[in-house]
Amino acid sequence: MRVAHRRAATCAAMAIAGALIVTTAACGGGDSNSATSNAKIKLTIGTFGDFGYKPLYAEYQQLHQNIEIVERITKTEDHHKNLAARLATNTGAADIEAIEEGWAGTFTAQPAKFHNFMDHGGAAIKSRWPEWKWQTGSAADGTVIGVGTDVGGMAMCYRKDLFEKAGLPGDRDAVSKLWPTWEEYIATGKRFQAAKLPNTHFFDGPTVMYRSVLGQADVGIYDKSNTVVVETNPAVKRAWDLTIQAIQAGLSAKIAAWSTDWNAGMAKGTFATLACPSWMMAYIQQQAKDASGKWDIAAIPGGGGNWGGSWLTLPKQGKHAKEAAELAKWLTAPEQQAKVFRAIGNFPSTISLYDDPVIKDFTNPFFNNAPVGQIFSNSVKVLVPQYQGPKAGDINTAIQNGLTRVEQGKQTPDQSWQQVLKDVKALL
After folding, report:
1. Is residue 81 part of a domain?
2. Which residues, 6 or more positions from 226, have their beta carbon under 8 angstroms from its beta carbon?
3. What is the pLDDT of residues 153-182, one digit of tens each?
4. The CATH number of the domain where 146 resides is what?
5. Is 428 within a domain?
6. pLDDT tens digit sequence for 185-214
7. What's the rounded Cα separation, in Å, for the pair 128 and 170?
8. In Å, what is the CA distance from 156 to each residue of 179, 192, 203, 268?
9. Which of 25, 201, 265, 308 could form a disulfide with 6 if both were Cys (CB 3.0 to 4.6 A apart)?
């Protein structure tokens, strides 16, 4: 999941963070048998965004009568900052903590702070995931700190009703043909704005567009030698420049992602397009409950890409590593990932599901019966994951803040870009 952040996610993301508490038998780290012990086991699990786990918690508690699950929620960025602080002070971390793609490198750089899933049956489940997903949750010394939840394959969510009012096609195949490239996406936005629909803009704001363009590059913030390449990687500047072009063309609603106005805009039609990693479907459905059938899903400009996706980790501060590992493995099993996708849209990271009818034949009635299983399966199969270094999340935030300064008229694009480069250097 994600961002926006997880995820995006967001989902971010972005999003909201949750924590889950399950109580453990007696004291100490837990040789207790969850299926047979009468004592309650309390575990904590911290998440962000909508992981779709509430029904699964209830199911797991039915299967394990001695387990009680309680959930807490915070925002994506706060979740990761809090986790970093709790690891540094060795107090306050949950038994299970979710981490999002953009922050994965922050925590894989600290393997001593986490239990190794290889000590908890990791070898038996490794084949569930593509190699890149498994490796992104692993440290350089081979410690597997996290097992994968969702993955952020890309599409474009759009308001079918607003497109038709603006004189554009509403059919998803015809919409996809409007924008094979991001340049043509911007050109389509100019056509949309020319219709002068009241209180509506073509897209929400800079964050989601920037992250989506960058997510299509082979190399993003870091190269594979763990070097920050913001200043030297043309893909980063291209994502910046395209987003600036869209802002300067007047296409943006100037709404900050994951703000109250952003949430309301999904329901009210304040913006007509939103680049859409799979986990974004859950967010839209949650915020725009009365807009079912008005939203649809087309191909993403540029094709493919990835933004977000998450992992479940086991901080060593947790008192019950055995029980926490069993819960994490169960939540990320293909059967549970399929249930989450069909319920809210977070796309599975387990490869056995991509050609399974339970996924590939699934259509989403909220999004005008879009064949979301097929759309996101195709996207995930061709994605090339970027290497995520330890400061990727913070660096992306600095770049997004720079785009916002331009949008708000506080700096010119050149002035803001130069400040971004200074801000990035200050983070390193």
Report:
1. yes
2. 387, 389, 390
3. 899 999 999 999 999 999 999 999 999 999
4. 3.40.190.10
5. no
6. 999 999 999 999 999 999 999 999 999 999
7. 38
8. 10, 16, 11, 18
9. 308
